[in-house]
What we know:
This is Phage protein. InterPro entries: Gp111 (IPR010878). The structure is a single chain. By secondary structure, this protein is an alpha+beta fold. The protein has helices spanning about 1-20, 25-45, 80-90; strands at about 45-55, 60-65, 70-75, 95-105, 105-115. Strands 3-2-1-4-5 form a 5-stranded mixed sheet, covered by helices on one side. Helix 1 (about 1-20) packs across helix 2 (about 25-45).
Amino acid sequence: MKNVMVRAWEIARAAVVKFGGKVKEYFAQALVMAWAEIKAATKLTERVILTANHDTKYYTVAGEINGRIVKTFENLSHEQMIEKYNYFIHNFGIKTASYYVIKGGTRKFLETKAVA
Length: 116
């Protein structure tokens, strides 16, 4: 439930930046959109979570199966990140990836997409 609310606030804040106005004006629709994202994501039971930390210049790659993190690799260089990303795709057969970025200490969701 918390992740839905956090995601809804992220969507609402992005709408303010794009269209102007106040965050609360966009929150109701953002909540609908966040629920739709979470509902769609629950159908995808396996995913690779890739986090790029712009503050430390390191990456974190984690594999998630049925809501549980099966393995995490932290403080990776770009080359190591690609290697571990491929490890999850080939060894676990994971077909979905979620991308996050950390900038200024704040974690921001970018997208979830199918892995080719």
